[in-house]
């Protein structure tokens, strides 16, 4: 056994003592110490103590600033209006926006003309696009006429529903076979087998790029349910590969408290990130996958990877749909259509909106666009070849 000199032994004991004192006296400071700090090799000085306090204060301020930033964007989250240009009155601002993002209904002829010789592939978001925004996420049913319009679209064009929702849940709302369903922001893709490159036997395509996160998401869901139970109106939704924390029914005074609770859970999971939708905080794996990547995957699955013979059309209303709009813009192919009643910063080319405050009227525009597309397809099939 190695003999330790008396002096050395004493120093070791002193150092050990320092560590213990640090734990007991500084309480919260322990959290800022990396595990390696528990083997301190020199006595803990007053200067070290001061530094630790400063570090702790800095971390607390940083966390506070983060929460403030979260709450600011929570306030802006529904709808995310374009930052007002001080020089433009509201009406001029709207006019200038509509010039850059004209109505997809008024530009309908140009849109279908661009599809000449190409296959139109339809991508549709669910909440706020096919169903109206309602307070209870479990009650976001798709209107009957919308389902009929969607059924016709899917009979005439390859069609995908791309949503932040869990795939099974959105299927239960839509209840239509023959479509592709991309749930969990595209991290759970399933579709019919026909003309599909990735089909497994007769099962059709199934693609889940975040499957390893499943246990972690379940754990986080449980933790969030427990943490947020004290906040009236907060609702946590398990979307399989991501989790939604809804604050639509939470009093604005409690938003900071809710954000703090979500942050404290998320701090334990560096492999998860936070994004925002309409009055919802979304927790997702940090993998490079989103609705845009899902759109590209689906085009490839349909055999249009690098093809010029396709015209993808994506209709959506939310921040997460911007990833898909951007893909289309970057490819210089197809069109993004933003559903919104107010001007928003967007990568979409067109908009579907009504000046009215009535949300259902906006959805009427989506339905109208889908109907016109089907009518045009039927007519063009009947037209004699030139
Ligand atoms: O990609 P989406 O289909 O738009 O899904 C995004 C989120 O949609 C749902 O929440 C939104 O709609 C709810 C029902 O109208 C509304 O109560 C909520 O405030 C909206 O954010 C869904 O419940 C979320 O899980 C999705 O992340």
Automatic annotation (TrEMBL):
Pfam families attached to this UniProt entry: Trehalose_PPase
Highest taxon of source: Eukaryota
GO molecular function: trehalose-phosphatase activity
SUPFAM superfamilies to which the protein is assigned, alphabetical: HAD-like (SSF56784)
Pathway recorded for this protein: Glycan biosynthesis; trehalose biosynthesis
Swiss-Prot/TrEMBL GO biological process terms: trehalose biosynthetic process
EC number: 3.1.3.12
Keyword check for Membrane: no
Record has Hydrolase as a keyword: yes
Reactions mediated catalytically: alpha,alpha-trehalose 6-phosphate + H2O = alpha,alpha-trehalose + phosphate
Class in the EC hierarchy, top level: hydrolase
Keywords: Hydrolase, Stress response
Record-stated family: Belongs to the trehalose phosphatase family.
Purpose of the protein: Removes the phosphate from trehalose 6-phosphate to produce free trehalose. Trehalose accumulation in plant may improve abiotic stress tolerance.
Protein name: Trehalose 6-phosphate phosphatase
């Amino acid at each position: 056994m190695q003999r330790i000199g008396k002096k050395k032994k004493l120093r070791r004991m002193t150092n050990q003592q320092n560590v213990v004192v640090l734990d007991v006296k500084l309480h919260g400071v322990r959290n800022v110490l990396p595990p390696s700090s528990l083997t301190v090799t020199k006595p803990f000085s007053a200067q070290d103590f001061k530094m630790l306090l400063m570090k702790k204060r800095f971390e607390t301020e940083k966390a506070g600033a983060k929460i403030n930033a979260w709450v600011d964007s929570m306030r802006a989250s529904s709808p995310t209006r374009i930052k007002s240009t001080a020089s433009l009155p509201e009406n001029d601002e709207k006019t200038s926006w509509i010039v850059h993002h004209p109505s997809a209904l008024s530009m309908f002829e140009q849109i279908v003309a661009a599809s000449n010789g190409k296959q139109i592939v339809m991508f549709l978001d669910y909440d706020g696009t096919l169903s109206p925004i309602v307070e209870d996420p479990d009650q976001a049913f798709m209107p009957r006429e919308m389902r009929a319009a969607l059924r016709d679209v899917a009979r005439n064009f390859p069609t995908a529903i791309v949503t932040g929702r869990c795939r099974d849940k959105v299927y239960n709302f839509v209840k239509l076979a023959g479509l592709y369903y991309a749930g969990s922001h595209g991290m759970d893709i399933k579709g019919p087998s026909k003309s599909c490159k990735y089909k497994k036997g007769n099962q059709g395509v199934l693609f889940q790029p975040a499957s390893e996160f499943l246990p972690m998401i379940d754990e986080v869901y449980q933790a969030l349910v427990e943490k947020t139970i004290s906040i009236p109106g907060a609702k946590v939704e398990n979307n399989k590969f991501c989790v939604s924390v809804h604050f639509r029914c939470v009093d604005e005074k409690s938003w900071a408290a809710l954000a703090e609770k979500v942050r404290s859970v998320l701090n334990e999971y560096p492999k998860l990130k936070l994004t925002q939708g309409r009055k919802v905080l979304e927790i997702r794996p940090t993998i490079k996958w989103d609705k845009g990547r899902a759109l590209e995957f689906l085009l490839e699955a349909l055999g249009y990877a690098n093809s010029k013979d396709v015209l993808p059309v994506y209709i959506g209303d939310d921040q997460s749909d911007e990833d898909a709009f951007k893909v289309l813009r970057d490819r210089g192919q197809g069109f993004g259509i933003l559903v919104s009643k107010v001007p928003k910063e967007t990568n979409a080319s067109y908009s579907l909106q009504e000046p009215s405050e009535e949300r259902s009227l906006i959805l009427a525009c989506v339905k109208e666009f889908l109907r016109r597309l089907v009518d045009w397809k039927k007519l063009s099939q009947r037209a004699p070849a030139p």
